[in-house]
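Meet my pick.
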Amino acid sequence: MRSQVTTMTNPIEHQIVNTISWTLNVAPQRLLPYTHFADDLHLDDLDLLLLIASLENQLGVYLTREQVAGIQTIGDVTHYFSAN
């Protein structure tokens, strides 16, 4: 059995990627820091807001409107949630 190499450095990143993977039914290997929600995962603004709200509830961290407006990639999400 081959071991899988991961670039995630903390448990929050791992939890975020797993939640997004499960919610969107996308393989976690496809969710890289530069994966764009609109261009790569085809989410519209409402879908992205619902995903962020789900992450906020699960992690107990709530982002400001300005932070949410700045989210475009998986890396943005992990940055904002890890910083809080």
About this structure: Residues 45-59 form the longest helix (15 residues). Confidence is low (pLDDT under 50) at residues 1-6. The helical segments are 11-24, 45-59, 65-69, 74-83.
